[in-house]
Design a protein that fits this description.
Length: about 450
């Protein structure tokens, strides 16, 4: 295969994980329950009733996991901080919870913590969760508490992970915690997360944070056909998925939501909110997995102005997600073109694939499909850089096979295989390939 072009000097290579998906130890050292503990305990919500009570046991094995990162040659480790460990009731600080992240930060690979990766303290959900404006203020107070403790060693902060998915899957469709099915009435959960991002950014700055980012998911919206109706449907999808979560942050305004039957000012947006949301950031995190094919719905079938469709004749991962690396180039270039000077540097904060490859007779995990996926997507980043996108880093989702939300342990995204019965870690072939790629890039 053709060599991978060299990314610019100083480009950051690493991996990403999230607290609820790997830590386990849900009852230890004063951690409070999160919405995901409640959701996983509800029959029928997670495939095969899997819970994350133990997950990868990262809480106890973090040193082994950070040693794997060092062996990989990773520059950075994106992990998330569990809000219910730090503030079990969403308010009072729990010292032993903070102490865990203190140890993790000191373990030795440049830390890039995400403050919220979907595990809201259940106590805050009981007060309305992200539908309640007060959650945004609580989030800022939590950010301040974490920064106060870790800010002397953490330089790179990420406020939220994928507020679109959290709103859509958690509040609109009920496929993720907290399991609400409010459809378009879930929109305040978007605004309050964004407000939380802005207020937390200010709190981080006040604590001296030099580098703050927001991580969104991005997916090019591809019209099903060349018809005007499909093009319009794709535009509507792009408005909801991308513009709704990017325009307020970079431009200080919400996109026009007329197509969603929401003409006029949004009632939950108060004076000054957009100024808070537009707090300058130093980078925008891009999580990319695949493009989304969009078509116009049959009349009367949905309250939304679009419907999602399958791609034909493309390879898919074991999750059924289409493998289309050019979509990553497209994503990075479209952000660059559409936001111009308002766009901060981009970071690919997640990219990866689910393939279920078990150890062979020699104990080796030959996950060539993941190698192909990663090589193709790193090349896609290089292509975007060559065409003018300012991209500073690339983090593979994920270091470890882990608890994949509603799919339980069925989707394996790791560079490292985890045997969930014994918790043994085994680096896969893709781990070695990624280590070699990082080393080649540094030569
Ligand atoms: C992203 C999530 C991450 C993981 C990957 C597969 O949407 O941020 O936690 O589940 O998908």
């Amino acid at each position: 295969m053709a060599a991978i072009p060299r990314l610019p000097e100083g480009f950051v290579w690493g991996t990403a994980t999230s607290a609820f998906q790997i830590e386990g130890a849900v009852d230890e050292d004063g951690r409070g329950p999160s919405v995901w503990d409640a959701f996983t305990a509800t029959p029928g919500k997670v495939r095969d009733g899997h819970t994350a009570a133990t997950a990868c046991d990262h809480y106890h094995r973090y040193e082994e996991d950070v040693a794997l990162l060092r062996r990989l040659g990773a520059d950075a480790y994106r992990f998330s901080i569990a809000w219910p460990r730090v503030q079990p009731d969403g308010q009072a600080v729990n010292e032993p919870g903070l102490a865990f992240y203190d140890r993790l930060v000191d373990a030795g690979v440049t830390p890039m913590p995400t403050l919220f990766h979907w595990d809201l303290p259940q106590a805050l959900e009981d007060r309305g969760g992200w539908l309640d404006r007060d959650t945004a203020h609580r989030f800022a107070a939590y950010a301040a508490a974490v920064a106060d403790r870790l800010g002397d060693r953490v330089r790179h902060w990420i406020t939220l992970n994928e507020p679109f998915e959290h709103m859509a899957l958690g509040y609109a469709l009920g496929q993720h915690a907290p399991g609400h099915t409010y459809l378009l009435d879930a929109l305040p959960a978007a605004h309050h997360q964004l407000l939380g991002h802005g207020l937390a950014t200010a709190a981080l700055r006040a604590a001296g944070a030099p580098h703050v980012m927001l991580t969104n998911s991005y997916t090019p919206a591809i019209p099903y056909s060349g018809s005007e109706a499909d093009t319009e449907a794709a535009r509507a999808y792009d408005t909801l998925h991308r513009r709704l979560f990017t325009d307020p942050v970079l431009l200080g305004a919400y996109p026009d939501l007329d197509g969603f039957g929401l003409a006029g000012p949004l009632p939950f947006v108060k004076d000054g909110d957009l100024d808070a949301i537009k707090a300058p950031i130093d980078g925008l995190g891009v999580n990319y997995y695949n493009p989304t094919r969009v078509t116009v719905p049959e009349p009367g079938t949905t309250p939304l102005p679009f419907e999602l469709a399958e791609f034909e004749h493309v390879n898919t991962t074991d999750f059924g997600w289409p493998v289309i690396p050019s979509g990553l180039t497209q994503t990075l270039l479209e952000l660059t073109a559409d936001y111009g000077p308002a766009l901060p540097p981009l970071w690919v904060t997640e990219n990866g694939c689910s393939y279920d490859v078990e150890p062979d007779a020699d104990g080796r995990i030959r996950d060539q499909a993941r190698i192909d996926y990663l090589e193709a997507h790193v090349k896609a980043v290089a292509a975007a850089v060559e065409q003018g996108a300012d991209v500073r880093g690339y983090l593979v989702w994920s270091l470890l096979d882990n608890f994949e939300w509603a799919e339980g342990y069925h989707q394996r995204f790791g560079l490292v295989h985890v045997d969930f019965a014994t918790l043994t870690r085994t680096p896969k072939d893709s781990f070695d390939r990624y280590a070699a790629l990082i080393a080649e890039q540094r030569r």
